[in-house]
Amino acid sequence: MITDAQGHRLSGATEPAAASYDRAVRAFNLVHGDAVGLFDEARDKASDFAMAHLGKAWVFAVANDPGLMAKAAVLAETAKGLPLNNREQAHLEALSHFVRGARAAAVAVLDRHLMHYPFDLVAHQAGALGDGFLGRFHCVRDRSARALPRWSRDMPAYGAMLAFHAFGAEEAGDYARAEDESREAAELEPLSFWPHHTVAHVMEMTGRPEDGLGWMAAREAL
């Protein structure tokens, strides 16, 4: 059985398609690179690859654009006709809510799903952004805090998970922890949007504008 970088089984995938999918998920998590193009690459290599369709659908759905939301709905409908395992069915259910504007219902599905699949980075990203739209940043913190004990620093994409928790901590006002964790996450994933944003926001909220300018200038050089 073909799996992704975190060990999840991928229905309809081939090894080359799974490699493209892993790169797409990384780009989606970092908010850096061409996630859409990489999901398309995976779809081209394996037309029945469910998570390639669902992953691209999530990129469009969380963009908060009506035109892209309609495209996300089409992709979800395509995936609906493919063989799906339990994980993929949960993504389809969550997306079905999200594309209808029922963000809270979508995130509730993802929240339950992540209790069983704590390494599902697509679900973590979609849940974090969904809760962001709903103003429920403490949920981003709590969901990632629940998953992090299952992770270890040597696992692929640990930096992305740590960055989710740091972002939630910052939005909940835990600035010291948020900065420490974001700096660690930035060392592991230098191109990630999440720790860059979080540290800059911590510096803004704690009255350190010069530190913030220095941080942003250093990140621009990457």
What do we call the CATH topology of the domain at 136-222? Serine Threonine Protein Phosphatase 5, Tetratricopeptide repeat
Tally the helices: what do you get? Answer: 12
Biggest sheet: strands, sense, closure?
none
Q: Could you tell me the number of beta strands?
A: 0
Question: Strand content of the residues, in percent?
Answer: under 5%
Listing every helix as H and every strand as E from the N terminus to the C terminus, the arrangement reads: HHHHHHHHHHHH
Question: Tell me, what's the shape?
Answer: globular
| Rg (CA only) | 17 Å
What percentage of residues falls in helices of 4 or more residues? over 70%
Top-tier CATH class of the domain at 136-222: Mainly Alpha
- Which spans of ≥5 residues are poorly predicted at pLDDT below 50? none
Structural class: mainly alpha
Give the overall average pLDDT.
96
CATH superfamily of the domain at 136-222, called what? Tetratricopeptide repeat domain
Distance between the termini: 37 Å
